[in-house]
Design a protein that fits this description.
The complex is a heterodimer of chains A (about 375) and B (about 130). Chain A is an alpha/beta fold and about 375 residues long. Chain A is built from 13 helices and 13 strands. In chain A, about 50% of the residues are buried. With about 130 residues, chain B is an alpha+beta fold. Chain B has helices at about 10-15, 70-80, 85-90, 95-100, 110-130; strands at about 30-35, 40-50, 55-65. In chain B, helix 4 (about 95-100) packs across helix 5 (about 110-130). The chains are: A alpha/beta (about 375), B alpha+beta (about 130). Bound molecules: pyridoxal-5'-phosphate (PLP) and FE2/S2 (inorganic) cluster (FES).
């Protein structure tokens, strides 16, 4: 059975070019802090990579702090900034952030911080007026993600940055789902802090970075040997860094992937009781998130598993947490659609063939109809 | 740590090919239960008749479920367990029994088995209310 991996927002396979590059460098083992030749070799590699990555977002090399991934980057950004600015006690974020932002905020909330979660509209776009109104003199940071991991909505980060600048508050963005896929110019946009992760763009797991604009004062969360400009101690993940620098060079098939996405969306929307979650236009080119009336996404995902089609649900019933998707709740999705959502995230390097697309569409339709037949809730046109 | 979201073969079997799925026209009773944990719903239809010794028994049972794989599998299993039983016997079916018959459920999915047992109980309750 052919395996169709359609969960690229969760993680991605290593690109073959990345594998080749890693194979070339696999015996590089020196500690970049060592003064001898082997150490210097490793150091040269990570500095080359840093330069390339910095350039890709129009930053300076010394503004790139390598981390173990975006969870760490997000933690470092928020906690690091909070510790460096102990008098500022308000954090503004959105309702639809990744848990690695929301949980950090929740914890700081317990320690006396005021956390304001800005609402989003039915497409998942942040309410800019509310944002503007909420920022107080006490604001430490505005943290709003660039692209949402569940519904793929692209936030107007240019406008958010502008508001932050007017109010003189630093702006952090979790760019995990956009970095390497969409063009980001941190200077032009006006971003102070940006998180990214390697495994979402066909590099290794366990590598990410935080962009820290020069002049920003943050406290390290890992103390030790003083690596990464003293902001993140620990021997660098040399191969991870190399893999990340390679991955950003790769050509993403954005336009073709978008066409494929739209074909699948349009076909799936022909299924009775289906509904697109998120924005049609302001949407990352590889994300599809659709709900089906009266069924449970986990059941659909399990049926598709049997067909070799690997997708995810956002209803989270399948995961270890039972809580419903906070993102779908935030966009105000109807109860009958809340449980029945699936997320398909396409490979951005390799296109699906027409045959594969048609197979996916057919199998989803078949299995949705099967589950709708089992369900006590029958969809009627007028309810849509 | 053990993986928490893997299903037994028995669960997969009942999930992919559920028994007694559908509606009964003119049922003797219906029981519908919503799962407070996840919002999923199960509906049970009963057709009651008298057996040879004159006791009421479940002649036919069908279900409709909006739920996860565990919910559909437990729905299927409970209908199999209940079919042919007298009302008194059927009342004694517990969710633990259902889960056991399915060779276990992942811990996080135990609440799903409540759905089936509760829906059956509700249907029997409604049946007895009707008679009074
Ligand atoms: C939007 C977003 N932020 C943060 C993360 C966490 O990234 P990492 O796995 O690198 O810690 C993810 C990945 O799940 C994500 O999608
Ligand atoms: S998660 Fe809802 S019934 Fe299992």
């Amino acid at each position: 059975m052919e395996k169709l991996y359609l969960d690229n927002a969760a993680t991605t396979p290593l690109a073959k070019e990345v594998v080749q590059e890693l194979n070339k460098k696999i015996s590089l083992f020196g500690n970049p802090s060592s003064r001898h030749v082997l150490g210097r070799e490793a150091k040269i590699e990570i500095e080359k990579a840093r330069e390339k990555i910095a350039k890709s977002i129009n930053a300076k090399p010394e503004e790139i702090i390598f981390t173990s991934g975006a969870t760490e980057s997000n933690n470092l950004a928020i906690k690091g900034l909070a510790e460096a600015n102990p008098t500022k006690k308000q954090i503004i974020t959105s309702e639809i952030e990744h848990p690695s932002i929301l949980e950090v905020c929740k914890n700081l909330g317990k320690r006396g911080y005021q956390i304001d979660k800005i609402s989003v509209d039915s497409e998942g776009i942040i309410n800019l007026k509310e944002l503007k109104d909420k920022i107080s003199k006490d604001a430490l940071l505005v943290s709003v993600m660039h692209v949402n991991n569940e519904i793929g909505t692209i936030q107007p980060i240019e406008e958010i940055a502008k508001i932050c600048k007017e109010k003189n508050v630093p702006f952090h963005t979790d760019a995990v789902q956009s970095f390497g896929k969409l063009k980001i110019d941190v200077q032009k946009i006006g971003i102070n802090l940006l998180s990214a992760s390697g495994h979402k763009l066909n590099a290794l797991k366990g590598i990410g970075f935080l962009y820290v604009k020069r002049g920003m004062n943050i406290e390290p969360q890992l103390n030790g040997g003083g690596q990464e400009n003293n902001l993140r101690s620990g021997t660098e993940n040399v191969l991870g860094i190399i893999s990340l620098a390679k991955a950003i060079e790769l050509k993403r098939e954005s336009e073709k992937v978008e066409k494929s996405r739209d074909k699948i969306i349009n076909k799936l929307l022909e299924i009775s009781g289906s509904k697109l979650n998120g924005s049609k236009e302001k949407r990352i080119y590889n994300n599809i998130n659709i709900s089906f009336y009266g069924i449970e996404g986990e059941s659909l995902q399990m049926f598709l598993d049997e067909e070799g089609i690997f997708i995810s649900t956002s209803s989270a019933c399948a995961s270890n947490k039972l809580a419903k998707s906070h993102v779908l709740k935030a966009i105000g999705i109807d109860k009958m659609y809340l449980n029945g959502s699936i997320r398909i995230t396409l490979d951005t390097l390799k296109l699906l063939t027409t045959k594969q697309e048609d197979f996916i569409i057919k199998k989803i339709k078949e299995n949705v109809e099967k589950l709708q037949k089992i369900s006590p809730f029958k969809f009627q046109e007028d309810k849509k | 740590m053990k993986p928490t979201n893997t299903y037994s073969k028995e669960v997969i079997k009942h999930f992919t090919k559920p028994a007694n799925q559908g509606e009964i026209k003119n049922p003797s009773a219906i029981g519908e239960i919503g799962n407070p944990v996840c919002g999923d719903v199960m509906k049970v239809y009963l057709k009651i008749a008298k057996n040879k010794s004159g006791k009421n028994y479940i002649k036919d049972i069908k279900f409709q479920t909006m739920g996860c794989a565990a919910a559909i599998a437990t729905s299927s299993m409970i209908t199999k367990l209940a079919k042919g039983k007298t009302i008194e016997e059927a009342k004694k079916i517990t969710n633990a029994q259902v889960a056991e018959s399915l060779k276990g459920l992942p811990p996080i999915k135990m609440h799903c088995s409540n759905l089936a047992a509760d829906a059956l109980k509700k249907a029997i309750e409604n049946l007895e209310k009707k008679k009074k």
